[in-house]
Structure formats: C-alpha cells, structure tokens
Amino acid sequence: MLMDRLKQRRKAMNYTQEQLAELVNAKKTTISNYETGYSTPNNEMLSDLADVLHTTVDYLLGRSENPTSLDAIGDGTAAIPEFATRKDVRDFKTFLNQQEVMFDGVPLSAEDKARVLGYMEGMFWDAKKMNKRSKPSSES
Q: Which N-terminal stretch is annotated as signal sequence (predicted)?
C-alpha cells in the first residue's frame, strides 16, 4: 500500500524521485526502494514525506482513503503560505484532525466538509500571519 500511494502522490505533485529525495534530504535510491517495497521509511521520514507530498501519514499507510492535502482543501487552489514553518503545518494538520464538521447535528457530505474546511484553512493561515506580525520586536 505505502509503495503505491507514495508513488501516486509523488507523481500527482509532479516530482521525480530525485526531486522528492532532495526535498526530504534523502537519496534517489532511498525513494526508489520505498516505492518498490524494498525498504520502508522510519516514522520521521514518513512524516517528512507526508508533509512534502501534502497528504497524511494515514493516507500513505492505507489507514485513510482520503489523500486530502493541506493545499488541496476546498477548491484545490489554496497553498501553504511562504511564512509557514514546519511547526505551523503540523499545527494545521492537528487543527484539521480535530474538526467534526456537522450542520444541525448532521455530518456534512465530503464535498461540503471540504468547502467548510477550505474556509477554516483561510482563517487559520490569516490568524497565524497576524500572530507572526503582532509579536513585539525586542528593542534595546
């Protein structure tokens, strides 16, 4: 499962094995080994791969059928802001995973949930950006 999904996400992001390897600080042969099932990534590498491929570890491992990526929520045009740190991205993933999207006690359809989460994504990144700007600088 991992090897297929890893290759699928890599191709969806238009990365070569070499490009993906560079983004996760690995060798091309390492990525090739993951995609052929010859070896498996450790937890840290799995997390890095999920971050770079804008998906979840659960999706890569086959525990989720939803490859929902951080930049594909809503209409698919949103992107992770340039100012976002890896911690910000992890915070955002945690934020999304904590959301139970319902209306009047009834769960929303996948399409409606994606739309609502898209709006929430925009609000989340706006709040992060304002927070980064409003931190007082240390003046002597």
A: none
